[in-house]
Amino acid sequence: MRMEIKNPASLLFPPLISLLIITSNLISTTDGHDFTIEEASIEEIQRAFTENRLTSRQLVDFYLDRIEELNPLLRSVVEVNPDARDQADVADR
């Protein structure tokens, strides 16, 4: 997915950017700990991929949904790759 940052000030809000990560309420449990994408670190996301608890398509769908939801307020994303979902499907295969 290709994004262009229109407002550099948006880079000052990494927690908000990290919120732009999978389909709402994606939760799974490993070792007694719940995994929710909204609170996941990069390491936890990579582990979820490895353990087949998360797909590229789910991750892309989450980002696209969050962009659609937040961009009217933030106005930071100018363009997304229209092929992002297809590319995620290829990555999952």
From TrEMBL:
Residues 1-32 form the signal peptide. The keyword Iron does not apply. This is Amidase. It comes from the Eukaryota. Keywords: Signal. The keyword Signal applies. InterPro entries: AS_sf.
